[in-house]
Amino acid sequence: MMNRFIPFFAVLLLSLPLKSQNTPIAIEKFNDGIHHWFLEVRDTNYQRHSPENFQAIAKNLIAYQNKDGGWPKNIDWLAQLNPDSVKQALSERYRQSTFDNRNIYPQIEYLAHAYSRSGNKLFLKSAIKGLQYIFNNQHANGGWRGWDVDAITFNDDVMTGIMHLLLDIAQDAPQYSDLPNKIRKQSRKSLNRAVALTLHCQVNVNGVKKGWAQQHDHQTLAPTGARTFELPGLTANESSSIIAFLMRIEKPTPAIVHAIETGIAWLQQSAIYGIRIETVEVPEGTYPGLTLKIDRKQVDDPSAGPLWARFYETDTNRPFMCTRQGEKVFSLNEVNPERRAGYAWYGIWPQKLIEEQYPAWEKKWKQ
After folding, report:
1. How confident is the model at residue 11 (pLDDT cuts 50, 70, 90)?
2. What phi, psi does 295 have (nearest 5°)?
3. I need a surface site. Which of 230, 270, 299, 353 has the fewest CB within 10 A?
4. What CATH number should be reported for the domain holding residue 323?
């Protein structure tokens, strides 16, 4: 009787790897770069690989990889285009490897998944080459720079994105199981240096630890500016991302626990009530010389909140914004229309962290 079922189970078992191989590998971490690609490329009349065709996408990643192990930013990794032609059309600077716009660590993660699905060693080799780029470009202080300024960069998840990747390796995520021991040791060493630096970057105001900035100076670790409209200040967005990363660390040290608790306290104290941000459509020609389709307005509303500002003054904790010309202002309505509609000055970034993730972390580690 049992023999009658053996062929059925054999077919079932054989079908499992095939199903796995046809399951898409997540591409959401490429979204930022692909979004910028579509902002810059005029001719988008081309074929794209389906997410299920992960081996073709992984081969694209290998084709675009620079000799230093990194990748240029703002590429549509699913595009069925000639990578050499695409890179040739870029300016010299835009061919260079960079972590900007959430770049490099997503490619490494994708290649590792592609290798674990297919066994294609070229994918593993490319992922290792990408990791070497991370190691080689880590600053002596443990940080990584972004695109706009040579500083320790938390903006665009430069530091946190890399640290999440290295933590996955340290915590033995299955897609990294075949990494050589030497690479694993380098990953852990690199991660430890980055975490130590992150803790030191937390801004201390009169003996009280607050949040973090988008960028910090390599030498002094003080908040520093980047683009003209990004003046030095504490930031709710990046601080939330940093705290969320720190909460992933198993058996956190007292220093990590303190950073999380004080960071959460600062976010709670910095919540804004009584205003809301409205996005409104604007007729063509409303702002001469601009092609804006929307605008944003700050509206008083006693029932609104909580909301957080992108930037807070380090000393006063007062929310501020900035014009494209670098003038600090304190109301969204004072920002010029192009930057008002084109930058996230307010958001609810910490809300889920405060209401859900932190209580769960506290329950796990504060008993």
Report:
1. very low
2. -140, 165
3. 299
4. 1.50.10.20
